[in-house]
Amino acid sequence: MPCSEPGRRALVATHAPAGRVAELGSLDLFALHTSAFSLARLAVIVFGATLFVLSTFFTRPWPFASWVKVAFWMLGLSGIAWGAIRIVLLSHGQSLSRRSYHFLDTQQPFLLGVAFGILALFLISGEAYRGTQRWRELKKKP
Prior knowledge:
7 helices, 0% strand
């Protein structure tokens, strides 16, 4: 069934993520919404978050306060969740309902805020400096 031009405009106006794709005539969201900078930012955030989580398992002995381990888990999980949501929105955004797309889109700043807040807490509390000093002392001991 062919779609008339006014009907197509109405579809585009009511279904924003899918409508933009229909209006442009392309189904490749990576070409529409991503740049090299966006992909690099995604990779850096997910890689950094993964390193924070893995550091809690592979650093022996743990030179930081015990609360830092839990904070790194929270930071890592929020960063990884942000990356997963970003990938879903970039690759399958056109197939999500409008409400689902909006919900996931609004969760991204929240998750980045959690990660940034925990990282700021770690740095401002002075535990980064004290933990690094303890790590250097442990490294010097034979």
